[in-house]
Specification:
This protein is of the alpha+beta class and about 625 residues long. The chain is built from 25 helices and ten strands. The strands form two sheets. The chain has a six-stranded mixed sheet with strand order 4-5-3-2-1-8. Strands 7-6-10-9 form a four-stranded antiparallel sheet, covered by helices on one side. The C terminus is likely disordered. It holds the Pfam family RabGAP-TBC.
């Protein structure tokens, strides 16, 4: 009787998934590129990995078969090459395990096949080598070789797996997930119905789905079959589905391996609308009443956001956008304000002008500010006719306004980059006093960018990461795989609001749009998201690594078209606001006030932002330094 041919159905396939054979023995080749697949063989789903190289396919294969009492031989034990304290779940079927030599041949590993019914757990992990991995463990307690998703795709893999199994997050470890078969009543549940990306489950499952990488392996030995007993209800519903809104904001147990906390921000996106820019504001008088008050400030802001301002009106309207003049002030009141502000400015200017050389020699802080300002003034926008030449009065004004700002805000003083913020203001106002007070209004918006702690910059990079992951998890996965997930290559963009990325004229248009604070205060982050999305094909398609990503982003300078980016950023905002968004994304977009629990805990924010940037601490510092050097 002829054997019945085996039926085979391919459910999912992804190239560029590396098998990590030995993390500790660095003198050996430790990664093997290959394919990850979900297949059905005779109706039974399995996860399979096979190497790309043809000759590697001849290497011994590791097959994981049935449990005791079922057909099939005992699986070969895999020696992962790590310390034994994390390597196995030691209490699972410990009595029946026998020692087998690791399956190796000429440094290569063959394919493995694991029926999904034999999958016990998944764990995201990060080794000290800087790579991120997904580790799967069988019901026999054996970990499979760790898998590194070099080109993303972990999210799609888990979606395919959800057709056959359910993943229950451990209440004790947000990086560990136990696998269960579907109940008969749950077979029709879709991936979304499992609440893997709902706000209520964002703390555990969504954290894992968004980035299956990210943490070290210390303490893995503490994972035992205790968790199965601790989750008696997971066969029926998500253990987090009944959490109250108050519980959703409670802090999680302290992580034994800090530095790789995941940001929960999955979202099911609808279509992105088409957005067109409008005409610039060209009639200012129509918004003034007989006494000179602005009758409809919100309408003015909307027009400016939609189309900007014609150059002839910028000097007047900018003073309202930057708070120099109140919107409800009359013409007479504005004359009085200007006289008072002029007197105040020159009183502060006289203060630093009257400092003698002897005094300055005893004031290292003041001397340092002056030195920095003189150096930066000589290299700020020298291509612009207003600042070009050696004896240009524009340079004197730039210097004097910055020195006076040091007297106005001596705690902050002068920080590199502030000259970039002043030069367009001085160019438009052509006035020392007006440019100074416009600068103080601008600095009220961005002064935290220049503080020594850089907490505000860390927070913005964190918010950018939240938005980008909601929009494009695949791109985020790829950046993570190249140690670029901290997005520090965007540091210069956010520090000085794209001043070095666009032409001088485009910056005038961009900043007046951003000063409206419409449609949200983080609109500049949406712009960054759109730019990164537009570069996705180049970054992933060309397989850029850490250094080439930084180089590519820096080379975008003066190659970006502002108007399509403004349209794209607004389209992203409209797209997101019509979706069910996780709480973190809502907070970044200003759609939700942060929870009171986080407000009451001043230490919570720095901790969260610090963990984002410590993903690659040393390289992150180098990157920040590099981007600043390019910016100045």
């Amino acid at each position: 009787m002829e054997a019945k041919p085996e039926s085979h159905k391919l459910i999912f396939e992804k190239e560029g998934v590396y098998l990590h054979t030995n993390a500790k023995r660095s003198n050996q080749d430790t990664t093997v590129p290959g394919f990850i697949r979900i297949v059905e063989r005779d109706g039974e789903p399995a996860m399979e990995w096979s190497p790309v190289e043809e000759d590697a396919r001849k290497a011994p294969a590791v097959f994981y078969t049935k449990k005791d009492g079922e057909e099939g031989e005992e699986e070969t034990k895999f020696d992962p090459g790590y310390e034994p304290d994390w390597a196995v779940i030691s209490t699972v079927k410990q009595q029946r395990r026998q020692e087998h030599p690791p399956v190796r041949e000429t440094g290569q590993w063959g394919s493995f096949s694991l029926p999904l019914s034999e999958l016990y757990s998944l764990r995201r992990a990060r080794f000290s080598l800087g790579r991120n991995f997904l580790v799967l463990t069988t019901r026999g307690g054996d970990p499979l070789p760790p898998l590194h998703f070099n080109r993303g795709g972990a999210r799609e893999l888990l979606k395919a797996m959800q057709r056959y199994i359910r993943l229950a997050p451990s209440p004790m470890d947000g990086r560990l997930f136990l696998a269960y078969p579907h109940d008969s009543g749950a077979l029709s549940q879709s991936f979304d119905e499992l609440h893997l990306f709902d706000d209520t489950s964002a703390d555990l499952v969504s954290r894992f789905i968004q980035d299956p990488y990210a943490t070290t392996f210390g303490g893995f030995s503490k994972v035992t079959n205790f968790f199965r007993g601790a989750l008696p209800h997971t066969h029926h519903e998500s253990p987090l589905s009944n959490r109250s809104p108050q519980d959703a904001h409670c802090p999680h147990p302290a992580d034994e391996e800090p530095g790789f906390e995941l940001i929960t921000c999955g979202a099911e996106l609808g279509p992105r609308p088409e957005v067109k820019r409008g005409k610039p504001l060209d009639n200012w008088d129509q918004f003034l009443d007989p006494e000179g008050r602005v009758t409809d400030p919100q309408k003015v802001k909307e027009l400016v956001f939609r189309g900007g301002i014609v150059p002839s009106l910028r000097r007047e309207v900018w003073k309202f956008l930057l708070g120099f003049y109140p919107w409800n002030s009359t013409t007479k009141e504005r004359e009085d304000i200007l006289r008072g502000k002029t007197d105040e400015y020159f009183r502060m200017k006289v203060q630093w002008k009257s400092v003698s050389e002897e005094q300055e020699m005893r004031n290292s802080l003041f001397r340092g500010y002056r030195s920095l300002i003189e150096r930066d003034v000589n290299r700020t926008d020298r291509h612009n006719s207003f600042f070009s030449g050696n004896e240009n009065p524009g340079l004197v004004l730039l210097h004097d306004v910055l020195m006076t700002y040091c007297m106005y805000n001596f705690d902050l003083g002068y920080v590199q980059g502030m000259s970039d913020l002043l030069s367009p203001l001085l160019f438009v106002t052509q006035n020392e006093v007006e440019s100074f007070w416009c600068l103080t209004g601008f600095m009220d918006l961005v002064h935290q960018n220049f503080e020594e702690s850089q907490e505000a910059m860390k927070q913005q990079l964190l918010h950018l990461s939240i938005l980008l992951r909601a929009l494009d998890p695949e791109l985020c996965d790829y950046l993570d795989s190249q140690d670029s997930g901290s997005l520090c290559f965007c540091f210069r963009w956010l520090l000085i609001w794209f001043k070095r990325e666009f032409s001088f004229e485009d910056i005038l248009s961009l900043w007046e749009v951003l000063w409206t604070r419409l449609p949200c205060e983080n609109f500049h982050l949406l712009m960054a998201c759109f730019i990164l999305e537009s570069q996705k094909e180049e970054l992933i398609g060309s397989n850029h690594d850490f250094n080439s990503i930084l180089k590519h982003i820096n080379e975008l300078t003066m190659k970006l078209d502002l108007q399509p980016i403004l349209c794209g950023a607004e389209a992203i905002y409209l797209q997101l606001t019509h979706c069910k968004l996780p709480l973190k994304v809502q907070e970044v977009l200003g759609l939700r006030v942060p929870s009171s629990s986080s407000e009451e805990s001043p230490d919570s924010e720095p901790k969260e932002t610090d963990t984002l940037l410590t993903q690659s601490e040393t390289r992150g510092k180098i990157m920040v330094c590099t981007t600043i050097l390019h910016a100045m």
